[in-house]
Amino acid sequence: MFDAAPENPYPDGLRPDEAPAPHALLTPVLGLLGTWRGRGQGTYPTLAADFTYAQEVTFSHDGRPFLRYEARAWLVDGDDVPLRPSARESGWWRLQPDGRVEALITQPTGIAEISVGHAADGAVDLSTHEVARTPTAKEVDATRRRYTLADDTLAFVHDLAAVGQPLQHHLRAVLRREKREQ
Ligand code: HEM
């Protein structure tokens, strides 16, 4: 007879002051926990036109020294009307002593990034250590992701080296933390 597994006893936490207690190594990134929503602009020299997008980003944890990261974006027009789904990615940010971060991030476009960097004082800076690509993925060579946190606002800047272009600006966005229920 098949016994259904019991409910997961280890749900992810979305805020620092609730169970599960965050691991001490998460201290430099505690301010990121939660769900963020906002808008951004993108550009790249190979594209015919710049674009505007909306985005939802979630950072959560299960008490161990890594964050679960999930982001999805959709293109919008000048009136905020959704045009089509755009970039999605998810991954794991492994926190190391002294705020060092090792991140694994994958995208449905066939890209798997391993990035390394540092988190401190409300800022995270991650640069490519390695990129792996599926056989049909576009040529992505490197990225740099910078997050700056101020209260409930998260600013994000993304540089990209891809399709023969050197590392340069691709995206910028400003996200606000979803109001937490008390
Ligand atoms: C919020 C996140 C992102 C958004 C909204 C976004 C949006 C776009 C858009 C609209 C394009 C034009 C092609 C198309 O219409 O699909 C594009 C191209 C591209 N993006 Fe992004 N992107 C995002 C993140 C990323 C990331 C994380 C990477 C790589 C790690 C990336 C790599 C590329 C590449 C390689 C191209 C193709 C350039 C070309 O072939 O000329 N993008 N992006």
From TrEMBL:
Transmembrane segments: none annotated. InterPro entries: Calycin (IPR012674), Nb(III)_bact/plant (IPR022939), Nitrobindin (IPR045165), THAP4-like_heme-bd (IPR014878). The keyword Iron applies. Its EC number is 5.99.-.-. Heme b binds at residues 46, 138, 170. It comes from the Bacteria. It catalyses: peroxynitrite = nitrate. Keywords: Heme, Iron, Isomerase, Metal-binding. A motif (GXWXGXG) lies at residues 34-40. Residues 26-177 form the THAP4-like heme-binding domain. Binds 1 heme b group per subunit, that coordinates a highly solvent-exposed Fe(III) atom. Pathway: Nitrogen metabolism. Residues 1-21 are annotated as: Disordered. Its cofactor is heme b. GO terms for molecular function: heme binding; metal ion binding; peroxynitrite isomerase activity. Belongs to the nitrobindin family. Forms a 10-stranded antiparallel beta-barrel structure able to accommodate a hydrophobic ligand in its interior. In fact, this fold hosts the heme group, which is located in a wide surface cleft. Heme-binding protein able to scavenge peroxynitrite and to protect free L-tyrosine against peroxynitrite-mediated nitration, by acting as a peroxynitrite isomerase that converts peroxynitrite to nitrate. Therefore, this protein likely plays a role in peroxynitrite sensing and in the detoxification of reactive nitrogen and oxygen species (RNS and ROS, respectively). Is able to bind nitric oxide (NO) in vitro, but may act as a sensor of peroxynitrite levels in vivo. This is Peroxynitrite isomerase. The lineage of its organism: Bacteria, Bacillati, Actinomycetota, Actinomycetes, Kitasatosporales.
